[in-house]
Amino acid sequence: MSRLFARLLLSPVAVVLIALATRAILDKMLALQPDMALVAYLAQAQSLFELTAAVALAGIGPGVVVFAARRDTDDHILMRDALAWGMAVSACAAVALIALTPALNTLLGREIAPAGAVGALAVAGGLMFTVLGLFNSLWQGRLERGKMIALSLVSWAPLAVAVSGLFHAVDARFYLLAQFGSIAALAIWLAAPVLRRAWRQAADAPSWRASPLKRYLLAGLSIGIMSPASIMWSRAQLAHGLSWDEVSQLQALWRSSEWVTGLAGSLIGLVYLPRMAAAADRPAFLHQVERTWKFLCLPGAAAIGLLWAAQGFVIPLLYSEKFVMPAAASALFLFGDALRLASWVPLHGLFATERTKAIAIGEWLSLPLFAALLTVLDVKSLVAAGACYAATYVVYLAFNVWCIYRTPGRYREAAVDRVTPLSRA
């Protein structure tokens, strides 16, 4: 019985559910604050956090998963290279965001993203989170899920205390300060042993500049910059045409939907990305892609449909009645989420086969396209915004599927050289 409990606790589903549950607790505590707009404002600040970290984690992160899953690399060398490249690009993003955000807000005449102390704390937290995310990627590839769960809980606990209001009034600055402090302490604790060993073995180890992780930089820069920036712009554009209260409703719907998309999407990375990366030939790879659609995306779409039907109960449970969106608008946004989930399967296939140029091109057809449609069409209703969101992911899914089935990726060389991807790694 104890062995079965341990297997369940360390399963991929448990990893994702714990992450979703801890975040939902924070969201509920924030939703109970008097100011409803605090949810949307913190979401804007968290977009700065995510943008800083995602330039590394959206590219270097999956690269670490791929090479760790193949089990033909030294963990210390892999993490030395990941930290060097990841922190370098995240630091550049941090400097650019702190310098340019105030100017962008002034230029556009409205606050697109928080500046000042709030913006700086969000960016600094994102920079430190890069380290945590890279170690999570290593453990994901090595299937060391207990470490992932422990890190999630330890980094969440200080935030729960901060949002409780026991020691300080709940505001954006205090929340982000607590977030930065806890993440920075964990980042130093994790990175220090790797950096010490790298320093001692510098003469014998291959240069970090020659790391194969460099191939993932382009995808990381594309996804890491465009996705958070686009969602931040989309929120600001909707707030300009509607209000921050309606943006908060959309944020609540997206967060609620992530109980499905986050669970299924994370399982793609936790379970199926390592399998795709380890596939010995193209038929085996495509089998894993189609298996992922069958076992994750079809049930996920059904669950999203149930969420729409039960939103009158789910949204008040997770937030409050003020956050319930009109049914027609929520149907379009949730349909877009179902398409988005389906598009992540071929996206991970592109990562597994190292087609980083296709990933970078396709990224322009996801959230950046949604932001562009909102701006060009000057959307003034949530229904129109939902239609733009659904149309965006029709296009993005079609592009990713075309890339998977029409371009051979690394299996072109495998067919010519008669070697497996594992022997070429």
Secondary-structure element series: HHHHHHHHHHHHHHHHHH
Mean pLDDT: 82
Provide the β-strand percentage band: under 5%
Structural class: mainly alpha
Q: Please, how many helices?
A: 18
Q: What is the CA-based Rg, rounded?
A: 21 Å
Quick one: overall form?
globular
- Low-confidence parts lasting 5 or more residues at pLDDT below 50? 413-425
Care to count the β-strands? 0
Oligomer: single chain
- How many domains make up the 3D coordinates? 1
Your description of this structure?
With 425 residues, the protein is mainly alpha-helical. The chain has one domain (2-424). 81% of the residues lie in helices and 0% in strands. The chain contains 18 helices and no strands. The chain has helices at 2-9, 12-31, 37-57, 60-70, 75-108, 116-142, 145-164, 172-200, 217-241, 244-278, 282-309, 311-318, 327-352, 356-363, 367-376, 382-406, 411-417, 421-424. The longest helix is centred in the middle third of the chain and has 35 residues, at 244-278. The model is unreliable at 413-425 (pLDDT under 50).
Which descriptors apply to this entry?
425 residues, mainly alpha, 18 helices, 81% helix, disordered C terminus
Give the arrangement of secondary structure elements.
Layout: H1 2-9, H2 12-31, H3 37-57, H4 60-70, H5 75-108, H6 116-142, H7 145-164, H8 172-200, H9 217-241, H10 244-278, H11 282-309, H12 311-318, H13 327-352, H14 356-363, H15 367-376, H16 382-406, H17 411-417, H18 421-424
